[in-house]
């Protein structure tokens, strides 16, 4: 029975990793569609996000089966419960990405992002892809040390979000209300996407150590 349990637990871990990789593909496509007014890329991003609904259901089915049929205890139970929480974070990343792609689709064939802000949004998109890449790597390795590095990457996204809001506030009176709303929402969507990758890191630390990130950080060797 325990052999079957660990095989199913590995399957769940692989499903989570797949979700994160699909999140990365979706945010890359959504950003490309947004910056290039490319309807095909925007539609592709939305398709990937819809695939995430199926992946979420598969993960939840695997997790519930583990809880109901395998009677996990102690560290095993922690891994299954944390996996369920990770599913929610990874699915939310997809939902936020779909919002980004939808803005590009609604404004097509016009550019949703004005030329003056395109560089900022491009950097936000690149940061989101990088954070999704890091999240996928952490899910694959389960290494809490790698997971702890997310805060620095999130700081980059926070700075870019602030830069974008500053640019929006500096818009002159000729800017359309629709553009202002779009850019404000886009900034928020990218920021929240990054926040969920940070949660992936935090939950990985708990899954690996049994401690919340703050407790673990206080006890780990300082020279590492």
UniProtKB/TrEMBL annotation:
The PhoU domain, residue ranges: 26-103, 122-203
Listed InterPro entries: PhoU (IPR028366), PhoU-like_sf (IPR038078), PhoU_dom (IPR026022)
GO CC terms, sorted: cytoplasm
Coiled coil region boundaries: none
Example GO biological process: phosphate ion transport
SUPFAM superfamilies per record: PhoU-like
Gene3D superfamilies registered for this protein in UniProt: Phosphate transport system protein phou homolog 2, domain 2
UniProt subcellular location: Cytoplasm
UniProt keywords, alphabetically: Cytoplasm, Phosphate transport, Transport
Entry keyword Transport: yes
Subunit description: Homodimer.
Protein family: Belongs to the PhoU family.
Family matches, as PANTHER family: PHOSPHATE-SPECIFIC TRANSPORT SYSTEM ACCESSORY PROTEIN PHOU
Full protein name: Phosphate transport system regulatory protein PhoU
């Amino acid at each position: 029975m325990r052999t079957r349990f660990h095989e199913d637990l590995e399957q769940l871990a692989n499903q989570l990793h797949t979700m994160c990789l699909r999140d990365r593909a979706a945010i890359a496509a959504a950003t490309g569609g947004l910056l290039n007014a490319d309807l095909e890329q925007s539609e592709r991003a939305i398709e990937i996000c819809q695939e995430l609904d199926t992946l979420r259901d598969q993960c939840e089915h695997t997790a519930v089966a583990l809880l109901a049929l395998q009677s996990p205890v102690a560290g095993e139970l922690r891994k299954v419960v944390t996996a369920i929480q990770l599913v929610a974070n990874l699915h939310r990343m997809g939902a936020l990405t779909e919002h980004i792609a939808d803005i590009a689709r609604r404004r097509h064939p016009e550019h949703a992002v004005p030329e003056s802000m395109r560089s900022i949004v491009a950097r936000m998109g690149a940061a989101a892809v990088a954070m999704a890449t890091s999240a996928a790597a952490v899910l694959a390795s389960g290494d809490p040390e790698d997971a702890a590095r997310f805060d620095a990457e999130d700081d980059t996204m926070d700075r870019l979000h602030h830069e974008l809001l500053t640019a929006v506030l500096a818009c002159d009176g000729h800017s359309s209300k629709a553009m202002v709303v779009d850019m404000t929402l886009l900034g928020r969507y990218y920021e929240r996407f990054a926040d969920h990758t940070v949660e992936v890191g935090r939950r990985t630390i708990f899954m690996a150590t049994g401690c919340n990130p703050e407790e673990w950080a206080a006890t780990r060797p300082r020279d590492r």
